[in-house]
Structure formats: C-alpha cells, structure tokens
Design brief:
Structural class: alpha+beta
Strand content: 15-25%
Number of strands: 6
Radius of gyration: 17 Å
Number of helices: 4
Shape: elongated
Strand order of the largest sheet: 1-4-5
Length: 136
C-alpha cells in the first residue's frame, strides 16, 4: 500500500490540491491492507482510486507533470493508460465511440477526432475503454 499511497500523494501535489474522494479511498485502502483484506477487495479499491484519479486528471487542462504522476499512480496499482491519438482508427476493443465531428477531409472519416477520456487496462484486460469522438 505504501507505494500506492505515496503515488497518490505525489499526484495530489502535482494537481495542487487534495483530490476529493481519494483521501477517503486511500484511508480505506490503508485500513484493508492492515487488516489483511482479500486481494480482490484491495484490487477493487485500487481500481476505484485509479478511475477517480483518471477522471479528475482528464477534466483538467493537459499537464505533463500531472500525467507523469498519474502514470506512476496507475503503475503502482498495476494499471496502464489507454491513450488514443487523434487521427488513429477507432479500435472498439479499446475505444468507446461517442459523438461525431465533421471530417476535414474524406481520408479522415471515421478516425478519432477527440479523446474525451482515456481508458485503463490491467495487463491485457480492459478495465475502462477510452471515450473518443470520431470524424463523420
């Protein structure tokens, strides 16, 4: 737990404020770790923390330092980001298509036009698909 707790602290420092909901989740995680809670319970708590941190980070303007600390937090929980790029084709195994935007050219039709929210994976298991917009 200490690695995850330290990663949460560094991420919170990078965003410049305590993250709502993460403090309580961190304490629950610390308590479960002390009490010897089942691995499944700890994994669920870690996934909840990761989803909250990702949601808060994606709602902010992009900042490389914040992203670096987010990746560190996710890695400490055994997770990695799914980071689609604008102009890439949609992969329905990794991406959840949402809205559509007018395509600037015919060649860009059906490609990713915007990343609304990045996704999460645990090894090869997709925990949360990235939400994307596509060109029409």
């Amino acid at each position: 737990m200490s690695g995850v707790g330290q990663a949460i602290d560094r991420w919170c420092a990078a965003i410049g404020k305590p993250a709502e909901g993460l403090g309580a989740a961190r304490e629950r995680l610390r308590s479960r770790d002390r009490d010897g809670a089942a691995d499944a319970e700890l994994r669920k708590e870690l996934l909840d923390i990761a989803r909250n941190a990702l949601s808060l980070t994606d709602a902010m303007p992009r900042d490389e330092e914040v992203d670096r600390h987010l990746r560190e937090l996710l890695a400490s929980a055994g997770l990695t980001l799914i980071e689609p790029r604008i102009g890439e084709p949609v992969d329905e195994g990794l991406h959840k298509p949402g809205g559509r935007d007018p395509a600037p050219t015919q060649q860009e039709r059906f490609l990713i036009s915007k990343v609304e929210r990045r996704g999460l994976r645990d090894g090869h298991v997709i925990m949360q698909k990235a939400e994307v917009r596509t060109y029409d």
